[in-house]
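Record 1 of the preview.
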Amino acid sequence: MPELAEVEKYRRLAEEAALGREIVRVYAPDDWYLKGGLTARAVKTALKGRSFTAARRIGKQLLLDTSDGGPVLGLHAGMAGRLLVDGRAAITDLWYASNEELEKWDRFAVFFADGGDLRIRDSRRLGGVTLDPRESKLGPDALTVTLGQLRMALGKSTAPLKARLMDQSRLAGVGNLAADEALWRAGLDPRRLANSLDDNELRRLHRHLRKTMVDLLNRGGSHTGDLMPERAAQGVCPKDGAQLVRDRVGGRTTWWCPKHQT
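->
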């Protein structure tokens, strides 16, 4: 599933291969995939004749700036969306999605004057396209979040710790797999109240969260964590051998170790 690590791969591919190329046609066949009141006519009018000038990312949101003061194109991959440029996929092995190359799953595309294209291929139709998304609605990026920003993100909330980490308005980019991995590494129970961490625990979480995001990116995806192979019935903690607990925290399936996560 595309989390921060996958979307950063998408950003790098777009930066490498999609900038500075004139857009001559826009393919937007699915009105449901266009968000925030956006219409196919509006997105075509906004992008045709322009080019992408920069590829940015905040959390799990890919942002493509356009030329001549044009709008920002926001691409959200959902759980199964993949970015392809000129037929080349940034990620070829999404964990919870089909990786078949079927054009019927193309939900949005722009075609360049040189004959190439950029596409969002989404087998589950859970992503979306926006123009000028409200970037201020997202919290600090989990790859670069500071200790102070993490402290503010958790705040005085009595929500479960994991749920608060996954609140994109508080901290952008932490998905289900990354949250379980970071909390497992930090030795923190995902069910704890977000405001219950002392200073030492907060520093430990910050250190392990940042390291987790870097590791998942370098390894190639959110499914490459140390805990991932044991996220199943009868799975055991890679640290201490205790049987993992399967829970539901913040509405998401959660795996954690009852021995060292306290």
